C-alpha cells in the first residue's frame, strides 16, 4: 500500500519542486537556464504516463511555479485587503490553483493525443501545446500572462527572437529546446542535441541585426519618484502634501523636455483639482516643458477611469477639464480595478472594496500622447504585460513606450522587478525605448533593445534624469504581430496530429 502511494505521488512532488525552481530564471535572480531545465524535467516526468496521471503532475508543477513566482500578490491581499490571515491565504491558494490548471492542461493534452515517444510529439506538438495553454492563460477571464518563459531570456541569445515574434516566439524556442533535450535522453538519440545548439547559434547571430535605427533626435526626461506610502496615499489629509511634493520636485527640473509623474500620482479626481492643474499647465508652458501624470477621472455618466493627462507643451490648447481627451486604461486589473461578480463579492470582505476598484475600460486602441512634439504610446501599469495591446498602440510615429505604475501594493517583493523585466521585453519586441515612471520603484529607462540605461533605487524619493534617443523603423513583430507564429503553430499541429493518427490507421488496415 505504501509503495503504491509513493509510486503515485513521487512524480507530482518532484514536479512541484521543479516548477518552483522556474522562478529563479526571472528577475531578480536571472538564472535563465532554469527556464530550460524546468520544462525539460517536466517532460521527463510525464513521459510514458497515462493522461490522468500527468494531469496531477502538470498541476503540481504549476503549483510550484506560481506559488513562488507570484507570491508577491499575497502582500496586496494581506496588507491592504483587510482580510483575516486565513482568508487571504485561502484566496491566494485559489489563485495559484487556478493558474496551475494550465500546465495541467498542457500535460494532459500532450499524453492524451500524442502518447508515443515520437519525434512529432516532441518537435511538433509539445512546443505548440505549451504556447496554446500559455495563450489561454493570458486570455481567459481577461488574462494573466505573467511568467511566460520567454521573459527570462532578455540577456541570452534566445532573447534576440523577440523582435521577430515577441515573447511568444522566445517561449516557443525554449520549449523546442527543452523537448529536444528530453527526446534525446528518452530515446538515446543524441543527434537531436544539435537542435538546441542551432537555436542558440541562430539567436546569437540575430544579435547583430538592428531592426530599427536610432534617431539623432533626443529627449530629456525627468521622472519623479514620489515614494508615497501606499497606506497614506488616499488619506484626505495627505492629498495636498502629496501633490506639493511632486510639484516641488518638478519645479527643480523644468529644464527637461518632459517631466513624468507615476500612475495616479494625484490622489484626487481630476475635477477636484482642476484649478491646480490649470496653474501647473501654465508653469510647464512658461518653461517650454511638457508634464505627464497619472490621474483618476469620473465622467458625466459617473464612470470612473484610470487616466493619463498631459500638460504644458502638448498639441492641445491650454488646460481644460475634458475627460474625453485623456488616455484611459483599457486592461483593468481584476479585483484591484474592477470586481467580477461584484454584487456577490463586495459584501464579503474589505479586499473586494479597495480604493478605486470600480473603474471602466478605455478603448483598446487610443491615440498616442503628444508631449513636447514627441509621441508616446501609453500603457498603464498592468497593461504593459499585454504585448499585443501595446503593439496595437505603437504607430510608425511613436517615439517611446510610456508606462506609469504604482507597485507599492507589493512591498519589497520580487513582483515589481518582474514587472520591470516585462516592460524591458516590450522595448525589445517593438524596437522602442521604454520610459517607466513609478511611485516607489522601479523607475527606469531602457533603450530599444530592452537594456536598462538609467534607473532609481527602489523605496527612495528621487528624480531620474535621462536623455533618450527615438528610433525609426519597425521590427518584424511590430509589423506582423503574433499571427505568423500562431499560423505556424496551426500547421505544425495539423502535421503532428496526422502523424499521430497515421500509425493507428495503418494498423487498422492490416487487421482488416
TrEMBL record:
<comment type="similarity">
    <text>Belongs to the CN hydrolase family. Apolipoprotein N-acyltransferase subfamily.</text>
</comment>
<feature type="transmembrane region" description="Helical">
    <location>
        <begin position="193"/>
        <end position="212"/>
    </location>
</feature>
<keyword id="KW-0472">Membrane</keyword>
<dbReference type="Pfam" id="PF20154">
    <property type="entry name" value="LNT_N"/>
</dbReference>
<keyword id="KW-1133">Transmembrane helix</keyword>
<feature type="transmembrane region" description="Helical">
    <location>
        <begin position="53"/>
        <end position="75"/>
    </location>
</feature>
<keyword id="KW-0812">Transmembrane</keyword>
<comment type="pathway">
    <text>Protein modification; lipoprotein biosynthesis (N-acyl transfer).</text>
</comment>
<comment type="function">
    <text>Catalyzes the phospholipid dependent N-acylation of the N-terminal cysteine of apolipoprotein, the last step in lipoprotein maturation.</text>
</comment>
<dbReference type="Pfam" id="PF00795">
    <property type="entry name" value="CN_hydrolase"/>
</dbReference>
<dbReference type="InterPro" id="IPR036526">
    <property type="entry name" value="C-N_Hydrolase_sf"/>
</dbReference>
<feature type="transmembrane region" description="Helical">
    <location>
        <begin position="483"/>
        <end position="502"/>
    </location>
</feature>
<dbReference type="InterPro" id="IPR045378">
    <property type="entry name" value="LNT_N"/>
</dbReference>
<dbReference type="InterPro" id="IPR004563">
    <property type="entry name" value="Apolipo_AcylTrfase"/>
</dbReference>
<feature type="transmembrane region" description="Helical">
    <location>
        <begin position="169"/>
        <end position="186"/>
    </location>
</feature>
<keyword id="KW-0012">Acyltransferase</keyword>
<feature type="transmembrane region" description="Helical">
    <location>
        <begin position="87"/>
        <end position="110"/>
    </location>
</feature>
<keyword id="KW-0808">Transferase</keyword>
<dbReference type="GO" id="GO:0016746">
    <property type="term" value="F:acyltransferase activity"/>
</dbReference>
<keyword id="KW-1003">Cell membrane</keyword>
<feature type="transmembrane region" description="Helical">
    <location>
        <begin position="122"/>
        <end position="149"/>
    </location>
</feature>
<feature type="transmembrane region" description="Helical">
    <location>
        <begin position="29"/>
        <end position="46"/>
    </location>
</feature>
<protein>
    <recommendedName>
        <fullName>Apolipoprotein N-acyltransferase</fullName>
        <ecNumber>2.3.1.269</ecNumber>
    </recommendedName>
</protein>
<dbReference type="InterPro" id="IPR003010">
    <property type="entry name" value="C-N_Hydrolase"/>
</dbReference>
<feature type="domain" description="CN hydrolase">
    <location>
        <begin position="224"/>
        <end position="470"/>
    </location>
</feature>
Amino acid at each position: 500500500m505504501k509503495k503504491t502511494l509513493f509510486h503515485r505521488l513521487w512524480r507530482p512532488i518532484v514536479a512541484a519542486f521543479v516548477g518552483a525552481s522556474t522562478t529563479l530564471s526571472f528577475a531578480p535572480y536571472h538564472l535563465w537556464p532554469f527556464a530550460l531545465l524546468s520544462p525539460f524535467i517536466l517532460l521527463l516526468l510525464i513521459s510514458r504516463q497515462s493522461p490522468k496521471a500527468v494531469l496531477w503532475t502538470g498541476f503540481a508543477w504549476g503549483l510550484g511555479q506560481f506559488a513562488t513566482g507570484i507570491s508577491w500578490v499575497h502582500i496586496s491581499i494581506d496588507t491592504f485587503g483587510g482580510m483575516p490571515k486565513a482568508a487571504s491565504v485561502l484566496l491566494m491558494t485559489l489563485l495559484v490553483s487556478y493558474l496551475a490548471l494550465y500546465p495541467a492542461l498542457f500535460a494532459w493534452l500532450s499524453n492524451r493525443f500524442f502518447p508515443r515517444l515520437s519525434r512529432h510529439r516532441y518537435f511538433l506538438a509539445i512546443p505548440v501545446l505549451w504556447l496554446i495553454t500559455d495563450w489561454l492563460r493570458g486570455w481567459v477571464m481577461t488574462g494573466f500572462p505573467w511568467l511566460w518563459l520567454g521573459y527570462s531570456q532578455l540577456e541570452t541569445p534566445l532573447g534576440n527572437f523577440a523582435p521577430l515574434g515577441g515573447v511568444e516566439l522566445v517561449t516557443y524556442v525554449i520549449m523546442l529546446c527543452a523537448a529536444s533535450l528530453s527526446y534525446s535522453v528518452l530515446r538515446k538519440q543524441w543527434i537531436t542535441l544539435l537542435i538546441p545548439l542551432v537555436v542558440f547559434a541562430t539567436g546569437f547571430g540575430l544579435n547583430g541585426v538592428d531592426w530599427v535605427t536610432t534617431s539623432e533626435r533626443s529627449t530629456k526626461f525627468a521622472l519623479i519618484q514620489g515614494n508615497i506610502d501606499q497606506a497614506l496615499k488616499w488619506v484626505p489629509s495627505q492629498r495636498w502634501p502629496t501633490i506639493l511634493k511632486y510639484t516641488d520636485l518638478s519645479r527643480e527640473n523644468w529644464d527637461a523636455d518632459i517631466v513624468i509623474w507615476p500612475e495616479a500620482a494625484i490622489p484626487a479626481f481630476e475635477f477636484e483639482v482642476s484649478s491646480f492643474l490649470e496653474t501647473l499647465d501654465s508653469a510647464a508652458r512658461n518653461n517650454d516643458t511638457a508634464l505627464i501624470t497619472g490621474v483618476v477621472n469620473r465622467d458625466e455618466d459617473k464612470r470612473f477611469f484610470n487616466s493619463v493627462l498631459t500638460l504644458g507643451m502638448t498639441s492641445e490648447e491650454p488646460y481644460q477639464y475634458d475627460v474625453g481627451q485623456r488616455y484611459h486604461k483599457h486592461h483593468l486589473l481584476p479585483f484591484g480595478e474592477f470586481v467580477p461578480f461584484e454584487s456577490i463579492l463586495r459584501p464579503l470582505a474589505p479586499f473586494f472594496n479597495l480604493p478605486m476598484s470600480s473603474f471602466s475600460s478605455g478603448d483598446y486602441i487610443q491615440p498616442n500622447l503628444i508631449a513636447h512634439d514627441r509621441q508616446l504610446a501609453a500603457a498603464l501599469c498592468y497593461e504593459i504585460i499585454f504585448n499585443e495591446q501595446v503593439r496595437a498602440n505603437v504607430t510608425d510615429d511613436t517615439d517611446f513606450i510610456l508606462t506609469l505604475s504604482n507597485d507599492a501594493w507589493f512591498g519589497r517583493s520580487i513582483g515589481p522587478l518582474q514587472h520591470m523585466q516585462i516592460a524591458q521585453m516590450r522595448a525589445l519586441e517593438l524596437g522602442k525605448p521604454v520610459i517607466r515612471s513609478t511611485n516607489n520603484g522601479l523607475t527606469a529607462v531602457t533603450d530599444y533593445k530592452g537594456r536598462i540605461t538609467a534607473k532609481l533605487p527602489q523605496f527612495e524619493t528621487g528624480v531620474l534624469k535621462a536623455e533618450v534617443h527615438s528610433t525609426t523603423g519597425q521590427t518584424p513583430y511590430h509589423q506582423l504581430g503574433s499571427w505568423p507564429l500562431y499560423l505556424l503553430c496551426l500547421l505544425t499541429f495539423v502535421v503532428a496530429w496526422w502523424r499521430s493518427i497515421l500509425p493507428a490507421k495503418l494498423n487498422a488496415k492490416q487487421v482488416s
